[in-house]
Amino acid sequence: MVRFSKKLEYSLIALRHISVSENEITRVRDISEKYNIPHDLLAKIMQKLKKENILESVQGINGGYRLLKKLSDIPLLDLYNLVESSTSIVECMHDDANACYVSDNCTIKDPLAKMQSEFESILKSKMVSDFV
């Protein structure tokens, strides 16, 4: 039911790659080529990580990215929220729940809400370092 998107997977792969590079500057192209990740998509992800002060960008001919935060200090929920549009496990848990046409008669709303809460708790309890 719950599935990580490619964007989240690519984020984790890139952060792991950068974390093992021992504070060297890492280029998007190097990560993209090594792991066969679409360059443009990875570049957008890296910009988001920079904007959230997870990564630092270094300009110039030898420019690239390096970590600003320890991966053990970044909850998976934060990364998830950064690259995903929602943590909702089903459509009716989105902010636009009014779009659900069975909402008034739904017999699984309460169990799904409980699962949603448990899912978010798991994401809060796991750090990015647990995946790299």
Describe the structure.
- With 132 residues, this protein is mainly α.
- The chain has a single domain (6-131), classed as Winged helix-like DNA-binding domain superfamily/Winged helix DNA-binding domain (Arc Repressor Mutant, subunit A), CATH 1.10.10.10.
- The protein is 45% helix and 6% strand.
- It has helices spanning 6-19, 28-35, 39-51, 76-83, 109-125, and strands at 55-58, 64-67.
- It has a two-stranded antiparallel sheet.
- A hairpin with a 5-residue loop joins strand 1 (55-58) and strand 2 (64-67).
- Helix 1 packs across helix 3 and helix 4 packs across helix 5.
- The longest helix has 17 residues, at 109-125.
Order of helices and strands: HHHEEHH
Number of helices: 5
- What is the top-level CATH class? Mainly Alpha
**Mind summarizing the main beta sheet?**
2 strands, antiparallel
User: So, CATH architecture?
Assistant: Orthogonal Bundle
Overall form: elongated
Helix content: 40-55%
| Mean pLDDT level | 86
Q: For the terminal residues, how far apart are their CA atoms? A: 23 Å
Low-confidence stretches: none
Summed up, the domain count is 1
The CATH superfamily bears the name Winged helix-like DNA-binding domain superfamily/Winged helix DNA-binding domain
Which sequence of strands runs across the widest sheet? 1-2
CATH topology: Arc Repressor Mutant, subunit A
Approximately how much beta-strand content do the residues carry? 5-15%
By oligomeric state, this entry counts as single chain
Overall SS class: mainly alpha
Q: What's the count of strands?
A: 2
**Rg estimate, integer Å:** 17 Å
